């Protein structure tokens, strides 16, 4: 188990019991969602990380701080257990499922895998942290630049969405005036969420094909957004990539 205490420490056993509790919760949750485990895994990964850090951190606390933190950790474990029991419907259902699972080799393989991952968690986390540090992902300037880029992208998509919505409204009311006696789009975009969806798909050049421009004016506007998307994507990516580049050293002054 990822515990920093020595084998003879009086606090080693409670911490190991908490890790055992955590392994049981993970295995039961994964077994409950065995047919469709994707969502369970995505939710359990950050929860497991939180529980590991809180549990291993108990060994570094002393005195009243250890007691208070231990109470919070145990309370969190109880809350996770109650949530798991609620997902099963009742504690009796959980025990019945556990009795059935205990006779299946896949259950014990899952327990072994999660236990092994628990032992290797600290080295894996340390290696991942070194990788993150090396790639600069902890640099706040990178995330600031990314947030600005996403904001500009959303604004551009919303601008075209508003134009598509207005065009759809005008063509539905008097198609002969703007759209050549036909609708602007294959489906009405009179609702902004529909227009925003179509604009986002167009800006990303995904092209699902469920909504298509019909009139010449609508096709021209969509073509313009596609052209803008390529330039916008290249510009934003270059800005985000450049925010963490170190400044070029100045040449020494020659007097």
Account of the protein in words:
The chain has 255 residues and is mostly helical. It is built from nine helices and no strands. It is elongated.
| Tally of helical segments | 9
**Number of DSSP strand runs:** 0
Shape: elongated
Find the structural class using helix and strand composition.
mainly alpha
Rg of Cα set: 28 Å
Distance between the termini: 64 Å
The percentage helix is: over 70%
Mean pLDDT: 81
Largest sheet: none
Which keywords apply here?
single chain, 255 residues, mainly alpha, 9 helices, elongated, disordered N terminus
Write the layout of secondary structure elements.
Layout (H helix, E strand, L loop, with lengths): L11 H21 L5 H20 L5 H26 L2 H11 L3 H31 L4 H34 L1 H4 L13 H12 L12 H27 L13
Helix pairs in contact: 1-2, 1-3, 1-5, 6-8, 6-9
Quickly describe the structure.
The chain has 255 residues and is mainly alpha-helical. Helix content is 73%, strand content 0%.
